[in-house]
């Protein structure tokens, strides 16, 4: 039979979720690492790959050592400099389990997908496959087209299933970085996890923008350290950069509700957002579920135990306290979403 009924015991005894990077990158999943140009996302991606291939910890998160294949589509020279800088900074070569593919690749072409999967499997397989960047991996595709992005998502899923790995795509934000991933919202919705990279001047940070089966919202600040690689044939200095945690700060977790009313509002909002079929409203980041303020206030108010004439006031007061930059929620144009 095609379908099998499972009991509650079956579900509770199912194998636990595996992680490549605990609470950040799940195994056997589709992940995006995204940010604006110049934010340091490709440096961060290489550092992530090196740590997974070698084992250890990444920004305090436990890592399961695993083979990695990095498909570099934005230039061999730049990647070579980054590799040399990483090795110089860490005083060791990149791990043997981190391998690279430099040839052009088109994820929209099933022949390319099949060839890449065969090459990775013939080389011993991988638990993480990185495509840097998605834009270069999907030449000719319209990122804003539901049809084109559905094909890209399906073919990324084929790669994941054929190789038996996590596929991580490095992607850009649009001109308005507050809207998250560039392109159609179906991509963010299809992701199992997403790492967002932000830059404000010299300050950089990455955060868990989405983790389906774990906590999200934790932020880590990092710096790009310049590494001198010597001189070229003209005597000019050659440099690159490496990732280093920003030691002046610590990881910043998303604010949590305080007090009985805020905790109740937070719990109901969590349910309403998870059930919402509205996305990307009023400038919300791509794929972020949204709810209408005036629709949720009476729903939450019904669950408060205070005087009936005070309930909606208390809900609005709690939501106002939890909304804004650096808070739990963001609001615009009558819509609410999770920061």
From TrEMBL:
Organism source for this protein? Paraburkholderia aspalathi
Source organism, top-level taxon: Bacteria
- Listed name of the protein: AAA domain-containing protein
- InterPro entries in the record: AAA+_ATPase (IPR003593), P-loop_NTPase (IPR027417), RepA (IPR038724)
Ranges for domain AAA+ ATPase: 27-201
| Pfam families assigned to the protein according to its UniProt record, in alphabetical order | AAA_25
